[in-house]
Amino acid sequence: MSSNSSRVKRTPLEPLRATGRQRVEELLAAASDLMAERGYEATTMAEIAVRAGAKIGSLYRFFPNKEAVADALVQRHIAILEDEYAALARRAATLSPDALADVLIELLVTLHPRVKSLSALMEARTDKMEIRDRARRHAVTGIAAALRVCAPGLDDILAADIATVVLNIMKIFRSMIAKEAPTTPDAPDELRRMNRLYLSDRLAPFRPSQGT
Predict the structure, then answer these.
(1) Which residues fall within 8 angstroms of residue 110, CB to CB, at 6 or more apart?
(2) Is the dihedral of CA 159, 160, 165, 166 positive or negative?
(3) How many Cβ atoms are within 10 Å of 81's Cβ, its own excluded?
(4) Among residues 149, 135, 126, which one has the least CA distance to residue 76?
(5) In angstroms, rounded to a whole number, what is the distance separating the alpha carbons of residues 103 and 111?
(6) CA distance linking residue 178 with residue 172, whole number of Å
(7) No. of H helices and E strands in the chain?
(8) How far is the C-alpha of 25 from the C-alpha of 119, rounded, in Å?
(9) Contact indicator for 150, 97 with CB cutoff of 8 Å
(10) Which phi-psi region, left, alpha or beta, contains residue 132 (left: φ > 0; alpha: ψ -120 to 50)?
(11) pLDDT tens per residue, the chain (212 residues)?
(12) Domains of the chain (ranges plus CATH)?
């Protein structure tokens, strides 16, 4: 059975026993590693099973197809990011635009071990699920919330536009740190500086004046 041949309209099986839950954790960890290494499209169900040390039937028992695996990963990654963005929003009122820019640009680097396949899923090109759009939408929403706390006068539309730019900068920065994108020793610092200048310029008009 190929990785893309199973199109059964069935939801993933929720394991009830501890051994089943452990197996699902192992399968998802293997899938996350592979998708981070090879991309969503290139990863197959057979490879996921092999990496997890599981039989292919065990994988299909819990996940009917690769899209179901990806969906489970997206849900987990989004939950982790939502917690991080909520914590960041609580701090954002005390951060300058420069400080917020530094926290944001480092966020994907810091979280990468826990959400290592997120970038691959956001870049996935599939007409079977809205993987990319859903992951990006949640990321933009979380970043925009922090931006509006830092700059209360910012409207929702502009906040989403700025957040989209920042998200792409975050992804490029992580790729440079991981040596997955063309870089030089000082290029990440230049990108960090660019991000600070961009956020300072865009947020300054919407922040409370120092005299209030």
Answers:
(1) none
(2) positive
(3) 22
(4) 135
(5) 12
(6) 10
(7) 9, 0
(8) 20
(9) yes
(10) alpha
(11) 444 444 445 566 666 577 878 999 999 999 999 999 999 999 999 999 999 999 999 999 999 999 899 989 988 888 898 899 899 999 999 999 999 999 999 998 998 888 888 878 877 766 555 766 777 888 899 999 999 999 999 999 999 999 999 999 998 999 999 888 899 999 999 999 999 999 999 999 999 875 44
(12) 18-65 (1.10.10.60), 68-206 (1.10.357)
Torsion angles phi and psi, residue 196, rounded to 5: -60, -45
Instruction: State both tokens at 188.
Output: 């990440």
Residues in the chain: 212
Please tell me the number of Cα atoms within 13 Å of 204 on its side-chain side: 7
Output the six-digit token pair for 55: 């039989």
CB-CB neighbours of 1 under 10 Å: 11
Residue 67 amino acid letter: E
